[in-house]
Amino acid sequence: MSNKVKTVLAVDLGGTKLLIGEVTKNGEILNKKKFFSDVTSQERALNSIKEAIVTYWNNGCIGEVIAIGISAVGRINIQDATWYEINPKISEPINLRTELKDITKLPIFAANDVNCATIAEKILGDGKNVDDFIYINFGTGIAAGIVQGKKLLFGSTYNSGEVGHMVVDYDSSTQCICGRYGCVEPLASGLGISERAKELIDKYPSTNLKEDQNGRIGLPELIKAYEDNDPIAQTVLNRATQAAACLIMNLVYTTDPKKVILGGGMLNGGWFIKHIKEYLNDEAMRFVTDGLEVTNLNPNEIALKGAAMLALKEGKV
Amino acid sequence: MSNKVKTVLAVDLGGTKLLIGEVTKNGEILNKKKFFSDVTSQERALNSIKEAIVTYWNNGCIGEVIAIGISAVGRINIQDATWYEINPKISEPINLRTELKDITKLPIFAANDVNCATIAEKILGDGKNVDDFIYINFGTGIAAGIVQGKKLLFGSTYNSGEVGHMVVDYDSSTQCICGRYGCVEPLASGLGISERAKELIDKYPSTNLKEDQNGRIGLPELIKAYEDNDPIAQTVLNRATQAAACLIMNLVYTTDPKKVILGGGMLNGGWFIKHIKEYLNDEAMRFVTDGLEVTNLNPNEIALKGAAMLALKEGKV
Questions:
Q1: If DSSP states are collapsed to H, E and C, what string results for A167-227?
Q2: Mutation for A interface: B85, B146, B253, most A CBs within 10 A
Q3: A184 pairs with which residues across the strands?
Q4: Between chains, do A178 and B284 touch, taking CB under 8 Å as contact?
Q5: Given an 8 Å threshold on Cβ–Cβ distance, is B155 in contact with A257?
Q6: Closest CA of chain B from A132, distance in Å
Q7: Integer CA distances (angstroms), B64 to A123, A177, B22, B29, in order
Q8: A15, A75, A19, A17: which is closest to A39 by C-alpha?
Q9: Phi-psi domain of A194 (left: phi exceeds 0; alpha: psi -120 through 50; beta: other)
Q10: Using CB atoms, which residue from A160, A284, A289 is nearest to B254?
Q11: Residue B35, Cα to own-chain centre: how many angstroms?
């Protein structure tokens, strides 16, 4: 019998990077390695995952690896580890369990990135002591995980929690990639605020805001401009925080959580939550007795840890 | 041993009437009786329930009554039958199990009216063969029941599904009783469309619309006026159907149901659903593989039947 600590080899495939690491049952990351990821197709994304696992595995693991847990962007069936799609418009179902089993012969579990983050909250984070909570990720996009009666909800097709496509402003002229107008994602996500700011640049020649080398205007730049009374930043961020608050309260009325936990890049530094709170209505929040807070887990590692916890619980989350 | 059919004595307390009846396990109503209800306070409402049960019980029951099931407006804990409140601003918790036990000595179960309607759908209606569905009631107010993995969700304080307070139009000048602006309830509920139409009467002196003896402008009158090109009716009903469609799609993205079932007085006659469908987006509805439909259960009896089913399942729904 091995004296080594039992670990899960966890993979977190994001839009631009892939993180792989060994995680203990307490959520400690013993070692990790970062790769670039290619998610321009599911096949290429699968190759990114395969390469990462082969490389890590062949270099030798620290602990006794007992399972593999995978977090990935897109829609994933946690029962059988079928990864339906990254982009809803191109569905090419891939069974990750079948595709990856020969590398290590270990049991394989997989879930969508926001579901994995919610699992991490539930087992390691601030969702540990409540039966009912929601985790909302405000990052490049927006999505949520809903936990009721200690169970994470997946919906009938593993598509629940796609709350970035909740319309909060149906008279808006801002169209979302989903086709509807006034969704919260193009108003309050990282990509959304960048796009909204860029749309306004021609109207306000006095602004100092400009795109970075990736064609984006990031939250830190917008916050700085906001504090300097830049009209674009004020318009975009006031709308973003209002839309985010509206989404939170809409979800509270729908799911009645005891606690609301926010995560994702938009929450870095505390500015976004502080301004969201200005728009919260006491009546709407009255049953959220354990409050609204930002995750205490490291946003760069939350999905990796969640993928590991999913594998340790054998998908029973 | 009694040869009588086993029944539940079910009570449905609404805003203006109370229905009591004996329901079999197949959902057949053997006998029923209607009373006026007084819901101006919880105590008066409790007296309405007591009187109805005493009267019915003393007149003799048809079957062998094995339990009592109560559906009532407001927030109710189905575990212990505590009725927290009718109006969220005045909470006077009453334990219905304790208060009513001496009348019949039978076990007592209780849930909120929309939860009862959802239970009826789940056991007797179109939710019978799906694991995940949502039932949305468009009546005087708007609320929903969410069933996932065959379980009805209640939230942390029996307040889930209060989706009438989902903001769909945050720039709206229409304020809801909850304090927020642009909630779907004041735009798309029976009371809401009446209020919206009344607000416009002074602006359109040419309209034939007028309040009925209760100070309301009902959906049938508005539909008739709409078809006669009345500008008030067109403004109000186009907005109502758009807001209703928006709510449905927002809930679909949040909970990922296989089927959406609509009920409540607004659905009578088929006009409302036909016009809602004009606003539905294929992308948003693509996973609702079992479709959007109006309940097949009689809207006047759905909560009564649900209360009976709740009692038969001993609250395990």
A1: ECECCCCCECCCCCECECHHHHCHHHHHHHHHHHHHHCCCCCCCCCCCCCCCHHHHHHHHH
A2: B253
A3: none
A4: yes
A5: yes
A6: 6
A7: 48, 58, 10, 14
A8: A15
A9: alpha
A10: A160
A11: 18
Which ipTM value was assigned to this complex? 0.97
Buried b (16+ CB within 10 A) or exposed e, B62-75: ebebebbbbbbbbb
Evaluate whether B103 touches B54 at the Cβ level (below 8 Å).
yes
Q: What are phi and psi of B207, to 5 degrees?
A: -65, 150
How far apart, in whole angstroms, are the C-alpha atoms of residue B109 and residue B92? 19
Quick one: average pLDDT of B154-168?
A: 97
> Chain A closest CA to B114's CA: distance in Å?
13
Cα dihedral value B47, B52, B54, B59, nearest 10: 160
Q: Is B105 left (phi over 0), alpha (psi -120 to 50) or beta?
A: left
Cβ contact, residue pair A148, B153, below 8 Å: yes
Q: Is A253 close to B165, i.e. CB distance below 8 A? A: yes
Judge: B255–A153 Cβ closer than 8 Å, yes or no: yes
A239-269 burial: b if 16+ Cβ within 10 Å, else e = bbbbbbbbbbbbbbbbbbbbbbbbbbbbbee
Q: Is the Cβ–Cβ distance between B184 and B142 less than 8 Å?
A: yes
- Domain annotation for chain B: domains and CATH numbers: 6-120+300-312 (3.30.420.40), 127-294 (3.30.420.40)
Backbone angles phi, psi at B8, to 5 degrees: -115, 140
Best to test chain A binding among B156, B165, B283 (most A CBs inside 10 Å):
B156
Cα separation, B260 vs B87, in Å, equals 28
Q: What is the pLDDT of residue B32?
A: 97
Spatial separation of the C-alpha atoms in residues A256 and A252, rounded to whole Å: 5
First to last CA, chain A: 29
pLDDT class for B137, splitting at 50, 70, 90? Answer: very high
Query: Chain B: nearest CA to A58, how far in angstroms?
Result: 40
Query: Taking a C-beta distance cutoff of 8 angstroms, is the pair A267, A138 a contact?
Result: yes
What is the DSSP-derived secondary structure letter of residue B164? G
Token reading at A14: 């994001």
pLDDT, tens only, A58-81: 999 999 999 999 999 999 999 999
pLDDT for B1 equals: 62
pLDDT for B74: 94
CB pairs under 8 A between A and B: 156
B254, closest residue in chain A (CA to CA): A161
The 8-class DSSP code of residue B168 comes to: S
How far does Cα B116 stand from its chain's mean position?
8
Which pLDDT tens digit goes with each residue over B296-312?
999 999 999 999 999 99
